[in-house]
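Quick one: structure for this chain?
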Amino acid sequence: MKDINIILAAAGGLVLLLGLLSRPIDRSWLSPPLVAFSLGVVIGPHVLSLLDPEAWGNSHRVLEQATRLTLGISLMGIALRLPARFPFIHWRSLMILLAIGMPIMFLISALLTQWMLGVSLLIALAIGASICPTDPVIASSIVTGGVAKDNLPGGFRHLLSTESGANDGLAYPFVFLAILLLTKPTGAAWLEWFFQVWLWEVGGSVLIGAVLGWCFGKLLKWSEHKGFFDQPSFLAISLALTLLVLGVGKLLGTDSILAVFAAGIAYDQRVKGKERNEEDNVQEMVNLFFTMPVFALFGLMAPWGEWLALGWHGLLLVVLILLLRRLPIVLVLRKWLPPVRERNIALVMGWFGPIGISALFYGVLASSRTGDDSIWIVVSLCVFASVVAHGITAAPFARLYARHQDRG
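Got it. Here's what it folds into:
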């Protein structure tokens, strides 16, 4: 009972702090995820010892479920924040990023991991798959808020948001390819990967999410037409749809993360007009109230000893991943990406591909399914490096881009 009260006090205090100081934090080198992670470290077993997640039983299972819920809520917020037709107008750019860029990022991350740490290829593939998606929560520091809106073009911000929303779910088949190859005979693993993972768990999730989102969007318009709908209920309906899709998608054995994003996009095609006025509020509330406590939980669970045991190989690995996982690929592909075709904004797009909650989710999932804790250790180290590096550079890089454009 004491732990519950400490958790409630810490979560409430964190959200209050970030809410009251949102403007100065938004304009500083700090980021909300970095503040939340630091709070978790302070109250965790390595500093004040107020909370010890190991005493809760299977702490990785707790983190897996917390990140799944947080990702679902965050992805719904992203879908509602986007201009309704943006994913369809810029579908070519999205397909290039997802069908070409994402697999290359996955392979680069895996090969760098195998080269620097000497782990087996399949373990390296599991790690590379876990860290290849762009995290929507950390990315929000460069796409939302006053600094981002004042300094960065809308096309870039919307493209980064859409990519981060879609590739969080599309990392699922890459992660499960490594898991299946590690746990089953090769032939059976490939058959299950193609027929079960791709055709049903991925394809079915898109279909289920889109149908649920579209239907509930239609129901919302019907309710509004009949006078049954009260505008303040929009937030509750959006969150309830998220929970519904997460639950139904998981019960049917699909990729529930991708299903939520598909539901949000479909729902957004029907929800227009005055309802859209609440979208920014939805996203800001989501970032503060639901996502920040997960970063604090990550701070509680951070395996400092295991990170240090990796030595300079671990340090060099995260530096190489931050520099080579995404930036060169975006620069090569930018001529086919109209919203980021100009070199300077392509540099921003290439750098800001943060590794965050989605990687934590896939990292603990792969670690628990394979029984290999090294996956969690390396993935969590990459997340920590990204929280620090992308958090402290978001606002300065946005201002630097704007100053360079003004001089040009």
